[in-house]
Amino acid sequence: MSAATESFLAPGDKAATSAPPPPPRPRGRRVGLIASLVTLGLLLAAWSLAAWQAWVSPLFLPSPIAVARAAAGLVTDGFADATLLQHFTASLGRVFGALAASLVVGVPVGFAIATSRIGRGILDPIVEFLRPLPPLAYLPLVIIWFGIGEGSKVLVIALAMVPPTVISTAAGVRAVSEDRIRAARSLGATGSQVLRFVVLPSALPAVLTGTRIALGTGWSTLVAAELVAATRGLGFMIQSAAQFLVTDVVIVGILVIASVAFFLESVIRFLERRFVPWSSRL
Amino acid sequence: MSTLRLDTVSLSYAPVGADDGLVLDRVDLAVRTRDFVAVIGRSGSGKTSLLNLAAGFLQPTAGSVSVDGKPVAGPGADRAVVFQDDALFPWLSARENVAFALRLKGTGPAERARRADALLERVGLAGAGDKAVWELSGGMRQRVGIARAIAAEPRFLLMDEPLGALDAMTRERMQELLLTVWRDTGAGVLLITHGIEEALFLATRVVVLAPGPGRVEAVIEAGFGRQFLSGRPAREIKADPAFVAARERLRDLIDPLETKAAA
Q1: How far apart, in Å, are the Cα atoms of B63 and each of B7, B66, B71?
Q2: Superfamily for A63-275?
Q3: Of B227, B242, B235, whose CA–CA distance to B179 is shortest?
């Protein structure tokens, strides 16, 4: 103890001195990434081995090289009268059309459910009815009602995307801090100003989360939507390839769908960091 | 000169007619512009409910809340509130937070920024306008919260334990800031606090609430804040025998049980 230290401890009090805990080591993320890459490598190796040793017929499991060759062929020559890019843009167009529709419908519905008892009473049952339905269940009905055109395909995807958008938005609106609303009102905000300047920005992170979930749901509905009367699209490509047992094209299609989903997820996460950086901090 | 008046105000969270759930029992309180009224009391004495009534966030079960005789129907910019957990808008920069009231009034962006920067400088945050809320420490956030409230040019500043979450050193700096803001704006201040010394140092009048249900136990006039504003150091004031005596008196009022046990 240095000479300048004074003690104000009463007899019997224990000095509360202990060494500070060591700082956590920032290696958790890297370890996780390495584990993921190793897993991926092992799967690829097992696949190559199975194909090379011909444990499985190439008809069912073509080798990674055959799949890569099929992918190259899809890019240049295409499959079923369209290149991979054309299939891809057809699918992406449908999913983004459905996303636009589900935002236009889902965000206001979410607001209505969160802010009004009547709105909740009217809309909640519809959303809850729609939410657990698998797209394949309502696909036939959509076709009976709206035909086999492009609109039906977008509608099938949109029906799957609306519930997550609504539910996230409503949760975000409900979670708006009461103190922030009060702060705005005590600074002179009217009801509509509170909605515009406080509730809307407060709910934005939840709307983005909803968009992320909805995009995942929509993208996974794609194959169902392209089951009937499609001439282009990744889902259509997979199905028609499967009918002719062109397994390598099926695998390429699956891989493309998976990578696009991963890419979209990353884009939304980027948007979240860019536009609502405060949501994870406060 | 304006007066914010709570007139025999009672507040109950229970249905009308029931006896339980009474939070405030016939409380009278008047804050005039240039008054600095501090309300202290133990938890459960309804301090925060009192502020919520004055702000118009709650309506009294009985009695009336009025400004210059006009009943208060809801919150308004004449009674700006500073919250304990700052309640800043994290999607706005510090400057935009301060400018919020001006934006509501439709002030143009250039004028908004100019006045917000001036206010930030006044609360000791010159140059911090572009900072995001999460980049600010607790004390800095509360300074932004105060600047945001005075930007509305309120006649009354209502503060709900604004320094409660700050560390001791920061709190003393902020107490001095509250006094200069009070002097410069000429607003009437209603401060809710659990700090006996803080109430006594800042207020021109200290109102002691007793719990269960909340009612006015005592009102003590004080003037130590004015001494500080005329240049006497805070530490000297707080060590003054008159200050210490008043502080002990308040402590007795708030915690009578301990006094009895000691006697």
Answers
A1: 6, 10, 11
A2: MetI-like (1.10.3720.10)
A3: B227
**pLDDT per residue as tens digits for the range A230-239:** 889 999 999 9
Q: If we measure between CA atoms, which residue out of B157, B163, B164, B161 comes closest to residue B143? A: B163
Q: Which of B51, B58, B88, B91 to mutate to test the interface with A (most CBs of A within 10 A)?
A: B91
> How many secondary structure helices (H) and strands (E) does chain A include?
11, 0
Domain ranges of chain A: 63-275
Number of domains chain B contains: 2
Here the ipTM equals: 0.89
Residue ending a domain, among B105, B131, B153, is B153
Residue of B nearest to A277 (CA): B91
Closest chain A residue to B150, measured at CA: A187
Instruction: Judge: B89–A281 Cβ closer than 8 Å, yes or no.
Output: no
Q: Which of B80, B85, B105 sits opposite A186 (nearest CB)?
A: B80
Last residue of a domain, one of B104, B126, B153: B153
User: Does B104 sit within 8 Å of A177, measured CB to CB?
Assistant: no
Tell me, yes or no, whether B110 and B122 share the same domain.
yes
Restricting to A residues 195-224, those with a Cβ less than 8 Å away from any Cβ of B are 197-198, 201-202, 204
- pLDDT value of residue A19: 47
Above 70 in pLDDT, residue A216?
Answer: yes
Long-range Cβ contacts of A136-144 (<8 Å, 24+ apart):
A136/A224, A136/A227, A139/A224, A139/A225, A139/A227, A139/A228, A143/A228
Q: What is the pLDDT of residue A237?
A: 93
CA A98/CA A101 separation, integer angstroms: 5
| Residue-level pLDDT, tens digit, chain B, 263 residues | 899 999 999 998 876 655 678 899 999 999 999 999 999 988 888 899 999 999 999 999 999 999 999 999 999 999 999 999 889 999 999 999 999 999 999 999 999 999 999 999 999 999 899 999 999 999 999 999 999 999 999 999 999 999 988 888 889 999 999 999 999 999 999 999 989 999 999 999 999 998 888 889 899 999 999 999 999 999 999 999 999 999 999 999 887 755 454 44
Establish if B24 belongs to a structural domain. yes
Whether residue A183 lies within 8 A of chain B, CB to CB, comes out as: yes
Is the same domain home to B164 and B107? no
Name the B residues in 29-48 with CB < 8 Å from any A CB.
none
Which of B57, B81, B91 minimises the CB distance to A201?
B91
The residue in chain A having the minimum alpha-carbon distance to the alpha carbon of residue B87 is A180
If DSSP codes are grouped into helix, strand and coil, which group holds residue B58? coil
- Rounded to a whole number, what is the distance in Å from the CA of B238 to chain A's nearest CA? 21
> Do B179 and B65 share a structural domain?
yes
Asked if residue B165 and residue B253 are part of one domain, the reply reads yes
Assess A278–B contact: CB distance below 8 Å, yes or no: yes
* Shared domain check, B72 and B12: yes
